[in-house]
């Protein structure tokens, strides 16, 4: 109860502060989103509100859940920190069969999560992974590059029609709703997850993102997920994004493809290493 009160008061004060904010603007009058940004929450572990867990994969122990054998030696590094959740309404509205698949994904996380194999994260997951991303914007275009997996996407500010094919990052079409950048994402392949907790989707998923500058160093981010194959209705996540303000802030080189080559292809060596 006390925690909820503190959160409500904090969010209320934040909203009041944002009401009088006037963003820096480009020459075309639109808000300037240029910069390096990063989420600071546990959404990549689990979008829903959750308690801390011993591991991203669990098994039944004599006195409660314990880390699965496959993740046991990760210890606290492989544990899940608690989080208040970013899903509006608290729960993701899964269809029954889809909810069952999510539980199966959780139980086999180490083999199923595409993040482990360095596949591009998709949208919206790329936004709240624990890595920064950079927005490049001018009067006519917006481009986002992500540190994880070298993922990139161009936000087309003119209608280019439907996506010609599905892809990891999909096709992003942008428009303006006042000072809010609205991005509609389609053409997303069904191979990505939305978090480490097995939250999956189908190729029919579409995402509508909303980016609003609420202070010089904060973006209010919202994403509405629609997928009639997996969910009973559209649902929304929201969170603040924080500007990286250190003087030498930049995206570092994180070629995670190279880091997982041994995992994916090591067994095919002429003389395989111990696995």
How would you summarize the topology of this molecule?
Layout: H1 2-19, E1 35-39, E2 58-61, E3 64-67, H2 96-107, H3 109-112, H4 125-128, E4 133-137, E5 142-146, E6 152-156, E7 171-177, E8 180-186, E9 206-215, E10 218-226, E11 235-243, H5 256-259, H6 261-265
Parallel strand pairs: 6-7
Antiparallel strand pairs: 1-4, 1-11, 2-3, 4-5, 5-6, 7-8, 8-9, 9-10, 10-11
Descriptive key words:
single chain, 275 residues, alpha+beta, Lipocalin, two-stranded antiparallel ribbon, 17% helix
Walk me through what this model shows.
There is one protein chain. The chain is built from 6 helices and 11 strands. With 275 residues, it is of the alpha+beta class. The radius of gyration is 20 Å and the shape is globular.
């Amino acid at each position: 109860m006390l925690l909820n009160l503190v959160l409500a008061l904090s969010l209320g004060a934040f909203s009041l502060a944002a009401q009088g904010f006037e963003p820096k603007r480009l020459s075309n009058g639109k808000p300037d989103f240029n910069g390096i940004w990063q989420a600071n929450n546990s959404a990549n572990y689990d979008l829903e509100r959750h308690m801390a867990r011993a591991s991203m994969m669990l098994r039944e122990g004599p006195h409660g859940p314990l880390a699965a054998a496959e993740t046991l030696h990760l210890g606290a590094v492989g544990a899940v920190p608690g989080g208040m959740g970013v899903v509006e309404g608290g729960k993701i509205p899964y269809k029954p069969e889809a909810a069952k698949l999510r539980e199966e994904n959780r139980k086999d996380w180490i083999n199923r999560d595409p993040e482990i194999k360095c596949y591009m994260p998709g949208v919206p997951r790329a936004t709240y992974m624990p890595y920064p991303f950079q927005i490049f914007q001018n009067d006519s275009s917006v481009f986002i590059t992500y540190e994880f997996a070298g993922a990139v996407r161009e936000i087309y500010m003119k209608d280019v029609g439907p996506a010609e094919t599905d892809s990891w990052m999909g096709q992003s079409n942008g428009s303006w709703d006042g000072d809010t950048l609205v991005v509609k994402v389609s053409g997303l392949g069904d191979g990505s997850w939305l978090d480490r907790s097995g939250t999956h989707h189908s190729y029919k998923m579409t995402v509508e993102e909303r980016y609003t500058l609420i202070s010089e160093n904060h973006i209010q981010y919202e994403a509405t997920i629609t997928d009639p194959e997996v969910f009973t209705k559209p649902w929304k996540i929201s969170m603040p994004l924080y500007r990286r303000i250190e003087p030498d802030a930049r995206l570092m080189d994180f070629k995670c493809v190279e880091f997982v080559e041994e995992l994916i292809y090591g067994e095919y060596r002429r003389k395989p290493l111990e696995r």
